[in-house]
Specification:
Helices cover about 70% and strands about 0% of the residues. By secondary structure, it is mainly α.
């Protein structure tokens, strides 16, 4: 505003951006699940029901992480909910801060990976995903990126990477000895059962929470069929959840991280400034001129370069939102400069936002889980770099196959 790049109306209006409202309302819905303890009850029940041995415990946590990614739009919140559960399991299998073993390393690092990658499967999985989708949609003259469009392209990749991560961690990098696959504390699972039973019977508010979120999820998943925006759907769900006498939470019960909301609004304001000044295109022109990159550069070179920079930048940056704000507009600018569809480069870049698990400072969940002292920086770096590298190769394969089948990658210009 001070430099005249944007008007006050444009800059301050970002707090009222539809995606900002979707962020806020998603936290209302997530708080509903946390306050009524539905999320905790589900996680405990699933582990008790299906976690019969070490392998099934890992698969149970995969399912729990993915399900919570649909419901809870904050990776830190998911980490906070799950931390006491998988730490209890780690203790049952003989892992402690003073006595590390590969079961403990795996269960914490697998959860860190799944918390982040699970969020990548849904545009509502994190605020950074929503920002990237908003920037891409805005460059195409649309109001919002579709839930279905993101889901069909991202969710299968998310699940494949999670399964690869499980195999790499438990079978290759931190293989568990036979004794580490067995409970070390007699009757250890009884502790989790006791905690589950302490929740008591399902309350009416819990049933209402489940009903509200199932309806919201169904409407999100069918946005193309009925045409109601994700924000409007979340608004309806949040209003019902907050209604006196009918809803399940009060406004003071809602845990909205307003500092994050203000930060996100600032990011959208910067994004609007980039759009007004056409700065990404100017940066791209300058960069390409400086390095002598011609307009005859093959598409696959651009694709490999952008995805490589995006995914490995997660090892240096401390904010997913800033990475989305920097690299998604650059990908859009390059697409426009070379005459490719906007989605061809910006969407693959957006799908890599959640790769922030290599070092403890790369994300809040990484910092939180590192405090468990179940693994060293060497351990997380070894596993993280391996998965980042595999994920980069996977996004290359994805661009040549699924993204091409869905019409995002241009025909005949990849390999």
């Amino acid at each position: 505003v001070l430099t005249g790049v944007t008007s006050e109306k444009l800059a301050y209006a970002q707090l009222g951006h539809p995606v900002m409202w979707l962020n806020i309302l998603s936290f209302v819905l997530a708080s509903m699940l946390v306050k009524t303890r539905v999320a905790k009850r589900f996680a405990l029940w699933f582990v008790i029901r299906f976690g019969k041995n070490a392998t099934w415990i890992f698969f149970s946590l995969i399912v729990i992480n993915v399900v919570l990614s649909v419901f809870i739009p904050a990776t830190t919140a998911k980490a906070t909910i799950l931390l006491p559960i998988f730490m209890g399991i780690a203790a049952i299998y003989g892992a402690s801060p003073d006595k590390r073993n590969n079961f403990g390393r795996n269960i914490v690092l697998q959860n860190l990976f799944q918390i982040n990658i699970g969020a990548s499967g849904f545009i509502t999985g994190s605020g950074a995903n929503l920002l990237a989708g908003s920037i891409i949609a805005g460059s195409m003259g649309l109001s919002m990126f579709g839930f279905q469009d993101w889901f069909f392209a991202a969710f299968p990749l998310c699940m494949i990477l999670i399964l690869i991560g499980w195999f790499v961690g438990t079978k290759l990098i931190f293989p568990m000895k036979p004794e580490e696959r067995l409970p070390q504390i007699e009757g250890g699972m009884a502790r989790l059962k006791e905690e589950f039973h302490s929740l008591g019977k399902m309350t009416f508010d819990e049933y209402k929470s489940i009903a509200i979120f199932v309806v919201v999820l169904m409407l999100w998943a069918t946005d193309k069929q009925h045409g109601i925006s994700q924000t409007a759907v979340a608004f309806m769900g949040a209003v019902v959840a907050l209604l006196p006498g009918i809803g399940v939470v009060k406004w003071n019960d809602v845990d909205i991280p307003w500092h994050l909301m203000i930060f996100s609004a600032g990011a959208y304001t910067l994004g609007s400034g980039l759009d007004v000044t056409d700065l990404p295109a100017v940066m791209v022109d300058s960069l390409f001129t400086h390095f002598g990159i011609s307009e005859n550069t093959p598409f696959w070179v651009l694709y490999l370069s952008l995805t490589f920079i995006m995914i490995f930048s997660g090892m240096l940056f401390q904010s997913k939102t800033m990475r989305a704000l920097i690299f998604v507009p650059i990908a859009i600018g390059i697409s426009q400069k070379f005459g490719y569809p906007v989605m061809s480069l910006s969407f693959p870049v957006a799908l890599l936002i959640e790769h922030v698990y290599v070092l403890p400072f790369n994300s809040k969940p990484a910092a939180l889980l590192y405090t468990t002292n179940q693994y060293s920086i060497t351990d997380t770096f070894k596993f993280g770099v391996t998965m980042v590298t595999i994920s980069w190769f996977m996004i290359i394969i994805w661009g040549e196959t699924v993204l091409r089948w869905l019409g995002y990658t241009p025909e005949g210009v990849f390999f």
